[in-house]
Amino acid sequence: MKKLINAPEAVLADALTGIAAAHPELNVDHVNRIIYRGTPTKAGKVALISGGGSGHEPLHGGFVGFGMLDAACAGEVFTSPTPDQMQEATKVADSGAGVLHIVKNYTGDVMNFEMAAEMAEAETGVKVSAVVVNDDVAVEDSTWTAGRRGVGTTVFLEKIVGAAAEEGRDLAAITALANLVNASGRSMGMALTSCTVPSAGKPTFEIPDDMMEIGVGIHGEPGRHRVALAGAASIAQQLVDPVLADLDFTSGPVIAMLNGMGGTPLIELYLMYGEVAKLLEKAGVTVARSLVGNYITSLDMAGCSVTLLKVDDELLKLWDAPVNTSGLRWGL
Amino acid sequence: MTTDTVSLDQLVAWLARFRELVSQQQGYLTELDSAIGDADHGSNMTRGMTAVMEKIGVSHDDGTQATLVDELFKSVGMTLVTSVGGASGPLYGTFFLRMGTTAGPVTTLDGAALSAALRAGLGGVVARGKAEAGDKTMFDAMAPALDALDASLATGGDCVTATAAAFSAAKAGRDATEPLVARKGRASYLGERSSGHLDPGATSTALLFEALADTLGQAPA
């Protein structure tokens, strides 16, 4: 394992130190491992709190700031944060209008956020609602599994719902919007290589040089199938087809994301986006906005994912609204 | 002769023995978890139970800060929730929190009270994890263990024989998870590929009942 670290067990603490040094506009609570806005949430604004295992940066800490999250809880690499962290995040972020928990659908994350919500309501009376993002079409059999995993749609959701929260909408409206965004997004990912978790010290899975994993999860979970490595056009097809098969994206505009898994250079991501755009055009899908880059990663995994989100004028307006975070910044 | 109850000290000894067992089998639990999960069950449980013993074992000569069963289990549950993370933290944490609520502010548990507390704990695991029989989870070791405990108590067994029966049933339940296809947790994404491996959660649950049987099976001090 070759990594820019001091020690495997210190990765998260040291990374939070770096985030605090690089972003004086944010507050970093090193004890509770939460990142929150430097300026307090304004009264009457619903607070958006997310979190999850680390290793997916910029998600979630990179999306804390005006127009997106109020606070993010960082767990150990690929391990859910705990309810006490979410409690602390709620304390610093709640302005009295309630809190929305944005949870990716993984067993540990869902349980820990549920406990946090129960504790918050019992102890402080803060109103908490939650959205569980589950957009990964690679998981075919949702009935007999823990369900579809939460991946790329999380980025869209944090941006769009964040903009709505800045407008001062109430918790019920915010929750309904979050559920709408989740229902409107689908993703599919692939890996050329495995990620390596620092504490494990070796790759999560073995894959030969001439093979790739189609439908991989953001923790290196197995995908739909392992197939022979192919050209970018073929890979794009293998990602776009299952997404389009799962939801009709031809009835209105979409926002498209070509996301890097952390170990793939931007030149390849743009190359892949070009292939994806061609396929979408051929399928009659109108791309209104696009996002290409590393937004929800899997440590050093080489590979990418495609996420499509059905939008209308309202969602597009919220997408275009100003945002000021280290991960997304525009319209200021 | 002692009356057939479990004392607070014995409950603390149970937790200490559980810590010892998960720590001894840390590598094995992690190995099971790397086959069908994310390779951290042994280290997470060891970290959690070590935190538990540090939390409850401070300063008192009798080995515990808590003087009542509900205090003890609430402290154990919260410590697990805040130190373990992942799915095991909320599951084992909720188990002990619910045990504490049901046990109440008492200093000893008789067989019926022990059973009621454990049942409440199982109810918490089900509420949190939504697991059913055969999903290849800790439920598959815990539910048969409690059935065996109750069956033994119902036929006049004392706490020692009842917890020994519970341990046997937990082991059998654990072993029965091997051929199952996982339907909960990260292992469920493997589908058929999860078959042929013991469930790590059922395995640590069997250790929980082994620890209980070990502790009560010893001659009382």
UniProtKB/TrEMBL annotation, chain A:
<dbReference type="Pfam" id="PF02733">
    <property type="entry name" value="Dak1"/>
</dbReference>
<comment type="subunit">
    <text>Homodimer. The dihydroxyacetone kinase complex is composed of a homodimer of DhaM, a homodimer of DhaK and the subunit DhaL.</text>
</comment>
<dbReference type="InterPro" id="IPR050861">
    <property type="entry name" value="Dihydroxyacetone_Kinase"/>
</dbReference>
<dbReference type="InterPro" id="IPR004006">
    <property type="entry name" value="DhaK_dom"/>
</dbReference>
<keyword id="KW-0418">Kinase</keyword>
<dbReference type="GO" id="GO:0004371">
    <property type="term" value="F:glycerone kinase activity"/>
</dbReference>
<protein>
    <recommendedName>
        <fullName>phosphoenolpyruvate--glycerone phosphotransferase</fullName>
        <ecNumber>2.7.1.121</ecNumber>
    </recommendedName>
</protein>
<feature type="domain" description="DhaK">
    <location>
        <begin position="7"/>
        <end position="330"/>
    </location>
</feature>
<keyword id="KW-0808">Transferase</keyword>
<comment type="pathway">
    <text>Polyol metabolism; glycerol degradation.</text>
</comment>
<dbReference type="GO" id="GO:0047324">
    <property type="term" value="F:phosphoenolpyruvate-glycerone phosphotransferase activity"/>
</dbReference>
<keyword id="KW-0319">Glycerol metabolism</keyword>
<dbReference type="GO" id="GO:0005829">
    <property type="term" value="C:cytosol"/>
</dbReference>
<dbReference type="InterPro" id="IPR012736">
    <property type="entry name" value="DhaK_1"/>
</dbReference>
<dbReference type="GO" id="GO:0019563">
    <property type="term" value="P:glycerol catabolic process"/>
</dbReference>
UniProtKB/TrEMBL annotation, chain B:
<dbReference type="Pfam" id="PF02734">
    <property type="entry name" value="Dak2"/>
</dbReference>
<dbReference type="InterPro" id="IPR004007">
    <property type="entry name" value="DhaL_dom"/>
</dbReference>
<keyword id="KW-0418">Kinase</keyword>
<dbReference type="InterPro" id="IPR050861">
    <property type="entry name" value="Dihydroxyacetone_Kinase"/>
</dbReference>
<keyword id="KW-0808">Transferase</keyword>
<dbReference type="GO" id="GO:0019563">
    <property type="term" value="P:glycerol catabolic process"/>
</dbReference>
<protein>
    <submittedName>
        <fullName>Dihydroxyacetone kinase DhaL subunit</fullName>
    </submittedName>
</protein>
<dbReference type="GO" id="GO:0004371">
    <property type="term" value="F:glycerone kinase activity"/>
</dbReference>
<dbReference type="InterPro" id="IPR012737">
    <property type="entry name" value="DhaK_L_YcgS"/>
</dbReference>
<dbReference type="InterPro" id="IPR036117">
    <property type="entry name" value="DhaL_dom_sf"/>
</dbReference>
<feature type="domain" description="DhaL">
    <location>
        <begin position="9"/>
        <end position="214"/>
    </location>
</feature>
<dbReference type="GO" id="GO:0005829">
    <property type="term" value="C:cytosol"/>
</dbReference>
